[in-house]
Amino acid sequence: MARAVNYTFVCLGDKQVATTLDLQVLDDEGYRRHAIELLRQHGSASAVEVWTETGLVDVIPRDGVRVWPEPTV
To answer: What is the pLDDT of residues 34-50, one digit of tens each?
Structure first.
């Protein structure tokens, strides 16, 4: 059974400046999916740091994740 974890997501811009903070309670496997969703929503983010109360869990780089929905011209 998955356990609920308090996560802090930090969207980082190109110069490692925090552009967005997002707090979520997710199951222990859902953080990666949520980080990718943040990359889709925030085009200025080059990576998302994932934190818990114990420290840094993961850094999810953009690596081809496209902004969705695509911006209209």
So the answer is: 999 999 998 889 999 99
Tally the domains of the chain. Answer: 1
Name the amino acid, one letter, at 66.
Answer: R
- The C-alpha R_g of the chain, in whole angstroms, comes to 12
In a domain, 17, yes or no: yes
pTM reported for the whole predicted model? 0.84
The count of C-alpha atoms lying within 13 angstroms of the C-alpha of 18, restricted to the half-sphere facing its C-beta, is 8
Q: Do 41 and 28 meet the contact criterion of CB atoms below 8 Å apart?
A: no
Residue 15 lies in a domain: yes
Q: How many helices (H) and strands (E) does the chain have?
A: 1, 4
